[in-house]
Amino acid sequence: MSAVAEGALVSVVAGDPADPGVRQRAGAWLTRVFEPGDQALVRWVGDTGPVAAVRSLLAGTAPARFVTQAAARGEDRSLADLLTAARLGARLVVPGDDEWPTRALHCLAVAADRQARGTDRTVALVPPLGLWVRGRPRLDELVDRSVAVVGSRASTAYGNHVAGELAAGLWSRGWTTVSGAATGIDAAAHRGAVAAGGATVAVLACGVDRAYPAGHAALLERVLDDGLVVSEWPPGSAPLGHRFLVRNRLIAALSRGTVVVEAAARSGSLATANRARELGRPVMGVPGPVTSALSVGVHQLLRGDEPARLVSSAAEVLEEVGRIGADLAAAPARSPSPRDELTDVARRVLDACPVRIGVPPERLAAVAGCAELDVLRVLPVLELHGLVERVAGGWRVTRDRG
Amino acid sequence: MSAVAEGALVSVVAGDPADPGVRQRAGAWLTRVFEPGDQALVRWVGDTGPVAAVRSLLAGTAPARFVTQAAARGEDRSLADLLTAARLGARLVVPGDDEWPTRALHCLAVAADRQARGTDRTVALVPPLGLWVRGRPRLDELVDRSVAVVGSRASTAYGNHVAGELAAGLWSRGWTTVSGAATGIDAAAHRGAVAAGGATVAVLACGVDRAYPAGHAALLERVLDDGLVVSEWPPGSAPLGHRFLVRNRLIAALSRGTVVVEAAARSGSLATANRARELGRPVMGVPGPVTSALSVGVHQLLRGDEPARLVSSAAEVLEEVGRIGADLAAAPARSPSPRDELTDVARRVLDACPVRIGVPPERLAAVAGCAELDVLRVLPVLELHGLVERVAGGWRVTRDRG
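Above: the input entities. Below: the structure tokens describing the complete assembly.
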């Protein structure tokens, strides 16, 4: 069972902004009051700091739209939510916590930055304000080597079989499966992981105390044996329709790549694949019979202008996520000079970064001679290595580089 | 029933080399004496002319290896072969004949040229010396808009269904299916075309009078209702093992693109796909369940470094062959200046061709800024448009360009 941190018991107004418990309480307040995916809000909270942001919202000194929205949500339920979560064995993880999946979610920060500059007009790719997490493992560790396996609700026996085999095969190679706990492929993926004795992460569009669909209560209990149930919404939140698309971006962001197992034409799971692509993550598809309507969407994905990679096994999935993930992820620990272990593209982008003023990704792409998507892929890695930094106007080489 | 041309009745030694019948008789002689795919021989016959080549072989003045090979084959059976063919309703088509599929086979001439320069070490991609053709339609017309549909002998019901549907769908859009009349996918493709009332071309590794496998005698009869049975070997020739790979290059060359429907890992039908790729023709694959061993080879093809295009319908096949074929093919008839209707790549390659000395395709690729394979794709088109010509050392702009 999780406990509520001491600092969270005092009000946000009274506590020390540096106290993790107070930050947690502020995070609980914010996730209850605001729907995730509001780019302006997340940016403002990031600039202000969550505790100061809540205080300014309560004092009415925050931007008017945010104050109005906050006031409309009524009384402060943050402590009640934290206590409810603790009773469930759940906790709220907020930016700055050790458990916060910084590397995974960094792509959302980059995407948000890109959207703010108006070069992109898709679903808001904005980092979450906090994540309600139920289960024992650490979220950051579990998603560090994870793959999203998603697909149609109306899956076939073939699709369910393949999703389950993939999840089991990923686990046997030390990788976690992330999915959305929906009927069909999602459930088959979670079940495959659980059956293999593996940890899996279910990312919900409702509170971590709710089972949606209701028939999946037992499945979610099994997921919690070794894995995690995660949500951006506080306990008790309902799975409202618009929340699924918002949730999908989180599935794409938390994992190193997304595999679509079965999807009809215009299936919702294709949206998750599109989010993954926008975040610079590998997108993969499992083919099926061309006579199956449930494979039409996957085949479209595999035929597109920027075709997804065809995969037929966990080994092939890891071959693909390894292209982006493995080499880059392992670099900082292994090498005295991170630069030596950068990929070709990363090195070119680094060389393209100016020393003084920051330049936007599209400029870097032009100078480095690569696609803007490649730039967006490697910038987070370069930043985590401390090689580049984001300043007004874009990116530049870190000034105090060792 | 075909008739034997008058000139063919006189001996090759006595006849006029310009007489089509004499050329046909020389072709019959050559296809009986030499196995196809001998690059040096085909080159020598091309340089010498078939009638003069046969005379020099009979006189013993040809290169020693060819003379020895010819002598080992015993008596002249050319007239007997032509008469046998005529009894079957078959004929021999040789280079220079109206029916010779010049455009289709031009890729083999280019590939042979490339191999001669040692940049390629695959199965000999050499044009045939002649084609024994059984059936009513003109070969050149039937293959002008054709697609090869090939696959495993040990196909599944799924594969057979898809192959048949593809062939029927191609015919309904005015396209012919080319295949090898083998058990499994080949037969299903021919049957699909025949059942749709369409013409189909069966390219055999034995004489056009033989059914291989024997159980396909009835199928080949149905193919002959509206289509063609084609072979490089004279009537009576046996389907020797090595002939299948040689035959496969012809299937790839005659058609505008090759679709593999089902193939196990390392299946022979992947060889046809590789030949098509080497000839610059689009390679396509129909996916299937990843749980099916018969789709493993196709999925490998769709995942390769130069992945084949995933197709799930005749419409998607034509979308793919149309990329290379349709626009280029239609250009000469429609436009007063062929240059105006060239694709981007073709125009760049044309611009890269020097006026005086010929340069090899790899140089053209470097200058035009495209892949060598693209250059090899467009050179035949440019040559048929009379825009470029092949000279010693490679290609240049045609001198007497209008």
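Note for the figure: The first strand of chain B starts at residue 90 and ends at 93.
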